[in-house]
Amino acid sequence: MAEPMVLLGAALTGFWLFFPAYLANPSAVLSGHGTPVDFGRSMGGKRILGDGKTWWGLIGGTLSGGFIGVIQMLIGGPTGLPTFGTTLFAMMIPFVLAFGSLFGDMLGSFIKRRLDVERGAKAPILDQYDFVIGAFIVGLIFIPGFMIDTYLAGTAIAGLVMLLVVTPPLHRAVNIVGYKTGQKDVPW
Ligand code: CTP
Ligand code: MG
């Protein structure tokens, strides 16, 4: 059994380094408008993704999530907080996480549309975890070393457990804020 402090460290590191993925969604809500990613097209009589997934949301969310990661890298040195690394390649990591998060969000919408769930309607589990799954799928393709070291290998699994535990309440809290501030039409 690993040292509890080692597991706690891995859990907090995993949470901290997932910020770009977390921030991507609210940023997409703020920047989203205009042309939908599916250009309004349908598949088998049902929208591919729906009007809730727009190009501006995808671009704004990816850039915002990536930039927060770059800021995390800049403050990592002076503060000693964990970072994505110090190389130019490492700077890609937060952008990949943010894009992956929104890719998962689109995957969730794709599945919702196939199941006849209207845009904005609730889909438990899918709504809370689609972006985590997306960040892992895209992350394992483009930045496998980072994903494995931070969330999967040995004690780093505590990082993944942390995400699974913290994400549903965090998702709920952020959406309630979004609803109360008029950014979202529904509190989920
Ligand atoms: N949004 C966007 N582009 C994205 C993601 C989100 O423009 N790629 C904006 C849309 O205005 C969307 C809002 O953020 O309505 C809330 O996002 P979300 O809850 O993910 O979408 P829903 O409208 O609930 O649609 P769906 O049922 O497909 O999840
Ligand atoms: Mg929604």
Strand order of the largest sheet: 1-2
Portion in beta strands? under 5%
The amount of helix comes to 55-70%
Number of domains: 1
Q: Span between N and C termini? A: 38 Å
- Which ligands are bound? cytidine-5'-triphosphate, magnesium ion
Radius of gyration: 17 Å
Helix tally? 7
Uncertain ranges: none
The chain-level mean pLDDT equals 95
- Overall 3D geometry? globular
Describe it.
- This protein has one domain (14-180).
- 66% of the residues lie in helices and 2% in strands.
- It contains seven helices and two strands, in the order ααββααααα.
- It has a two-stranded antiparallel sheet.
- β1 and β2 (46-47) form a beta hairpin.
- α3 (55-79) packs antiparallel against α4.
- The radius of gyration is 17 Å and the shape is globular.
- The termini are far apart.
- Cytidine-5'-triphosphate binds at residues 28-29, 32, 50, 52-54, 57-58, 102, 105, 109, 112, 119-120, 184.
